[in-house]
Amino acid sequence: MATDKPRDGYPITPAPGEQGSQRLSLGRLHQWESLGYGMFIHFGMSTYVDVSGLVNFKPTGNDPASCYCPDRLDVDQWVCVARDAGMKYAVLTAKHISGFCLWPSQHTDYTVANSGNTTDVVAAFVDSCRKHGILPGLYYSSYDNHHRWGSRTRSDFASRQAYMDLYHKRPRFGGINCGREDDPERMPYSTAHFQSFQTAQVTELLETYGPLMELWVDHPEVLGRGYRTYFYEAMARINSDMVILMNNGLPDSDCYDIDYAWPADLMAIERGQPPAGGYKKWRHIEGKTYYIPGEVCDSIAPVKLDWFWLEGDEPRPFQELLGQFQACRQGGANYLLNVPPDKHGRIPDNFIRALAHLRKEAGI
């Protein structure tokens, strides 16, 4: 066992020859780590609706499906841009906070099938990835403003500040199990009806478009530990080699918040980077030792309101992008860089130029 005094969620030093208690073998996880660099693709209803005046800058989920209307949709372009940038995998937002689905789901009518462009984007994405040698992954948001069935979301707060006040009370690595001091009556949650819907939808995605390389689940805190464990195990049975990430939601990687995001195969480092000395991959969780690789996710453009494209978006300063890429490479974490398509359904030229510059200067 580990030589350090174990605290739940915190890094430890493994014993020689430790294989860990994680679901996936060290060999499989090392394969995922070897990919190194991937593209996050935020695209959907939030590309088309103005969220600037909304609580928490989040779509209400009430916009008609017809609002989604790319006129020059080119999913193959996205994947070719990822390939040409030196990326090895890509993760697409199949369903984000709006609840709008980029595939013709049988479990809701709020999909591309009833929109201004009926292309099955998930199918086109997965097919293009396989054609161009990019490993496909899908993102699914458990924060859903369209399919509620009594669930409480962050959008129910009176203001963005009201939510942020509560969010910042969230302890940062302050004690055993990263315990929370929040009022549970105020925190977002999901109902059993929504959880059944999520199981059905993600099962549909995996069985229709799989196998996938990665499943990226956002806002796992609303699911609760019991359902989250059931969901993780059910999805792993469908696609046993797939890595499953439950977004830890923090820019730091000191402590894995078990109550918020466990179980998972990966740890998200959102809009941060590995610490000096590198990302610590071995963790003590509930009496066992786990090897949990890290994935830094950030956007090529400043995240002003959300991760989707906004009119006038420009890439972040080049040295900032290069520094984050190098920190991931040196610190032992994968880098998932968000490159959002515009309203036409294409990745803008200024993003493509920035990616080409990054590839050249980073020696990718």
Task: Supply database-style keywords.
alpha/beta, eight-stranded parallel β-sheet, two-stranded antiparallel ribbon, 364 residues, 29% helix, 9 helices, TIM Barrel
Number of domains: 1
| Secondary-structure element pattern, one letter each | HEHEHEHHEHEHEEEEHEH
Overall spatial form = globular
Distance between the termini: 37 Å
The number of E-state strands comes to 10
- CATH C-level class is Alpha Beta
Q: Main sheet: which strands, in order across?
A: 5-4-3-2-1-10-9-6
Major beta sheet summary? 8 strands, parallel
CATH topology: TIM Barrel
How much helix is in the residues? 25-40%
Poorly predicted runs of 5 or more residues: 171-185
- Average of pLDDT: 92
Structural class: alpha/beta
> What is the chains' assembly state?
single chain
Question: What layout of secondary structure does this protein have?
Answer:
Elements lengths: L25 H10 L1 E5 L33 H10 L4 E7 L25 H12 L2 E7 L18 H8 L24 H18 L4 E5 L6 H14 L4 E4 L11 H4 L5 E4 L11 E4 L2 E4 L2 E6 L18 H14 L2 E5 L10 H14 L2
Write structural notes for this entry.
The protein is globular. It has one domain: Alpha-Beta Barrel (TIM Barrel). It has helices at 26-35, 75-84, 121-132, 160-167, 192-209, 225-238, 258-261, 318-331, 349-362; strands spanning 37-41, 89-95, 135-141, 214-218, 243-246, 267-270, 282-285, 288-291, 294-299, 334-338. By secondary structure, it is an alpha/beta fold. Helix 3 (121-132) links the parallel strand 2 (89-95) and strand 3 (135-141). Helix 5 (192-209) packs parallel to helix 6. Helices cover 29% and strands 14% of the residues. The two termini are 37 Å apart. An eight-stranded parallel beta sheet has the order 5-4-3-2-1-10-9-6. Strands 7-8 form a two-stranded antiparallel ribbon. The longest helix has 18 residues, at 192-209. It is built from nine helices and ten strands.
